[in-house]
Design brief:
- With about 375 residues, this protein is of the alpha/beta class.
- About 30% of the residues lie in helices and about 20% in strands.
- The chain contains 12 helices and 14 strands.
- The strands form 2 sheets. The protein has a 9-stranded mixed sheet, sandwiched between helices. It has a 5-stranded mixed sheet with strand order 2-1-3-4-5, sandwiched between helices.
- Helix 3 links the parallel strand 3 and strand 4.
- The longest helix has 15 residues.
- It is elongated.
- The protein starts with a helix and ends with a strand.
Length: about 375
């Protein structure tokens, strides 16, 4: 299938529009749409995107901006138009009624209630449908959505700040602050667009974090603590603010009824993870977060939790802040504990690597090759 330079330009613009929905549309996918009028010299007449969960989808948003210049033209959309009644009516029907001659789709939607049905509906109505323009870019954009559908687990974003010698805390456990204020502002922005923030019990105890986004972002994350014995102090900031932002304590069945009841009475939710060891319990927690349709989860450590996620193969994206500091110490904490790999050929690698200087820190981010 051959696409013109203009086709590619329109789809690339639709992908840029779709990205504006990050943190606002989940668990729905991010979708963008561009409409071009018919004629020997095609031109863009409207554009739109899915802006908010429960709001108009990208195609409807674009159609509302088109002012009747759709008939006979081409619609470019980053994901197959839906064909079912959900929060909104089916977009495939809205497009059929607008009568474009052609719809170009970046990728089919694997969601069970769509899964080719939108394409078939358009074709049955006489609309030419072409699929696959910038498909790799579309898949990359909606990788969290696709993982949630395929694996029923959230997209896991690992974040840590470390010194030049690769430590996230001193031998005494002190870690505040390794990175600078500008780096921490980036972390707050990430917190503001994810569904949950996950830490281990040791981090919750030592750092006593709030785990909120400051300033607030488009989403309010559930604050999740992996705490086998449900022993997090009632005086911790997390427990004391459970009435202001949700807190989920993920414990094992060894946790006492007294501690579970104490945390419940403080306003926390308690989820008992099944499993005979920490890896099994963590996997069970990820399954539960997937059942709740949490799309993006930020894991902020510490080393044991991040190492366990790495051992499970569940880290999908990394945000790393390297500070120009040295602390040394054989017993100082490293970012990834756990078992790790035994051969260098099995080392995790990042793709789409980005690196920039923020204040005195170096900020590195990328996605983990699977």
């Amino acid at each position: 299938m051959t696409f013109s330079d203009f086709d590619t330009q329109c789809m690339r613009q639709a992908l840029e529009l779709a990205a504006a929905g990050q943190g606002r549309v989940e668990p729905n996918p991010m979708v963008g749409c561009v409409i071009a009028a018919a004629g020997p010299d095609p031109r863009i007449v409207a554009q739109g995107c899915h802006r908010q969960f429960g709001g108009p989808h990208a195609e409807v948003d674009a159609l509302q901006n088109a002012k009747g210049e759709v008939a006979g033209g081409t619609v470019y959309v980053t994901l197959e138009p839906c064909c079912h009644h959900g929060k909104t009516p089916p977009c495939s029907q809205a497009l059929i009624e607008a009568r474009p001659a052609r719809v170009v789709v970046a990728m089919a939607d694997p969601f069970a209630e769509v899964n080719g049905g939108g394409i078939r509906a358009l074709e049955a109505a006489g609309v030419a449908v072409e699929v696959g323009l910038l498909e790799d870019e579309a898949r990359e954009l909606n990788a969290p959505y696709l993982k949630l559908l395929a694996q029923r687990r959230p997209w896991m974003i690992a974040k840590w700040a470390m010194t030049l010698d690769g430590k996230i805390a001193t031998r005494s456990g002190d870690s505040q602050w390794i990175s600078g204020e500008l780096s921490r502002a980036v972390v707050h922005a990430i917190r503001g667009r994810v569904d949950a923030i996950l830490v281990g019990k040791t981090t919750a105890e030592r750092d006593d974090p709030l785990l909120t986004a400051r300033p607030a972002g488009p989403r309010q994350a559930v604050r999740v603590v992996a705490d086998r014995l449900a022993s997090l102090s009632s005086e911790s900031q997390l427990v004391r603010t459970a009435g202001e932002a949700p807190v989920l304590i993920a414990c094992g069945d060894q946790a006492s009824e007294r501690d579970r009841s104490r945390l419940l009475a403080a306003g926390c939710e308690v989820f008992v993870c099944q499993g005979h060891d920490s890896h099994q319990r963590l996997a069970n927690l990820l399954d539960e977060l997937g059942r709740r349709r949490l799309t993006n989860v930020l894991a902020e450590g510490g080393g044991q939790l991040l190492g366990s996620l790495f051992d499970l193969g569940e880290i999908d994206e990394v945000h790393l802040f390297v500070a120009p500091k040295l602390i040394g110490g054989r017993d100082a904490t490293s970012p990834l504990s756990g078992v790790g790999v035994s051969a260098m050929k099995d080392a995790g690698r990042l793709r789409g690597l980005r690196s920039e200087t923020i204040g005195e820190d170096v900020y590195i981010s990328g996605r983990v090759e699977k």
